[in-house]
User: Fold these one by one.
Assistant:
Number 1:
Amino acid sequence: MEHINAALIESLGEPPRYRSVPAPQADPHHEVAEVLAVGIHPVTRAIASGSHYASSGTLPFIPGIDGVVRRADGSLAYVGGPGSGTMAERILINPRSAVPLPADADPATVAASMNPAMSSWIALHARVPFRPGQSVLVIGATGAAGSIAIKVARHLGAGQVIAAGRNQERLHQLLSEGADKVVSLSPDDDVTTAALAGAAADVDIVLDYVWGAPTELAMRAILDARTDHTQLLDWVHIGGTGGPTITLDGSDLRSNALRLSGSGFGSIDMQHAGLPELASAVASGALTIRPRPAALVDIEEAWTYQNSPGERTVIIP
Ligand SMILES: NC(=O)c1ccc[n+]([C@@H]2O[C@H](COP(=O)([O-])OP(=O)(O)OC[C@H]3O[C@@H](n4cnc5c(N)ncnc54)[C@H](OP(=O)(O)O)[C@@H]3O)[C@@H](O)[C@H]2O)c1
């Protein structure tokens, strides 16, 4: 039997190991593709640790939820989805869900950028009825997904984009990456409340990468400061870096036009998420973050490496 090299999760919560595994075999619905680049995203680690709702928990398995491949006909494509197990030299793909990429696309940049970029792209395409000219607040804007969300909102025609986050230096940089205003999420709750009320009281859409206690505070600050409580406020939960839950008083829903939703695996049909258009924008360099390439053989070290803001580790098999 032919073998290939792959990353393999053998124990939940531990980094994958570099292993030899049986080569994938094509079937009537799937073709074998050569893997060119795979990003290590927060969701990749969360699924591999068993803590994500999309984790199957069945061991061993190949991690990786997306990647850039070269198809049998020589074309490039972006592929992915939970359970796709992309961190290997070759994988099986479903040609019907492969998103075509231009021949000159940089695989590492696309692999680094598609997952963070699609979080806001899908939210604004499929989870809220976004209209150009509306204002967007990004909470957790200093992370990879949050910082691309600013570019995505701008790209899609947002009227005003407000970036909220903790990292002062990164927040300041976001002013030259499309943010009109920044709000510092400081350790002082009163200072944060006043800053959010001043900058985002009448915002139309919140893209929330943080959740948990910071979201409880931000929601309170914005709802209390709204000029018109009947103006629709679409609050989209996308990430949970600040915690998995929030407490919400029912009276906040009755006394404001607050609409809560979430965006992630399971809440949208990926076939209708506008991914080909996003892939073109990413491949053109408009919506990217910086890849930090690492070889598959170095997977254990790459897995635990802490990216600096605006950078994402990408495995090159
Ligand atoms: N649903 C989707 O489609 C989708 C897609 C992509 C990502 N996500 C999720 O979105 C989240 C962010 O992803 P990412 O790729 O941007 O990760 P990342 O690059 O690691 O950034 C993490 C961000 O979270 C912030 N953060 C962490 N703890 C916080 C806290 N207690 N209070 C305020 N901010 C806090 C960090 O702020 P500092 O800079 O101050 O440390 C940073 O901005 C993750 O939960 C990820 O799984 C969801």
Number 2:
Amino acid sequence: MGTPRVIHPLFVRITHWINAVAILVMILSGWAIYNASPIFDFSFPPALTLGGGFIGALRLHFAAMWLLAANAILMIGYGLASGRYRAKLLPIRIRDIIDDGRAALTGRLSHVDLSQYNGVQKAMYAAVLVAIVGAIITGLALWKPVQFQFLARLLGDFDTVRVLHFLAMSGIALFILVHVTMALLVPRSLLAILRGRP
Ligand code: HEM
């Protein structure tokens, strides 16, 4: 049989985990920033926030955003330029999403071949990559509304951009919930994203 071949190259694994850490810091510090001026009728439990208050959270958010953005450029740049995303994430078919989603919910989805993503995975990975880019673009418009006026104008006013930024975060948070649950349910996949092969 020999050693199973590498499914996730080292570069993919390193950028995946840097992204995971950066996203977690961004979300948890973002929740503290949100709490200082909630958009909706609720705030996040302080225990689930990072930064120890508004100013600390803002500093942390602005520090981690460089890590997130630089890593996203490398991770997504590599995925696009190497053809990895084209090979692994496309085509995305509604039929596959429905069939594989149904199979997953009834415990009939095969996880034997980790080198191929199922229909739900393809759609979710592609969507979360778009959400990350969306969070960064709306974040730029919130961070420097004057310098990035064209962005803010393109997207609406400041408050609309805040809501869009919040929506991007919500999509990413929802993704993480499902994604981490699946990784724990299929530990071989976790091994693969840690050491390259199951
Ligand atoms: C925090 C804990 C996380 C765990 C335990 C985890 C686990 C995994 C695992 C096991 C895989 C491989 C899936 C497979 O081979 O079937 C994977 C891939 C992937 N994960 Fe995560 N992940 C985490 C965080 C994140 C976050 C925060 C994001 C994005 C917001 C993310 C986005 C992705 C993407 C896009 C892939 C596909 C990578 C590729 O094939 O190029 N992950 N993750």
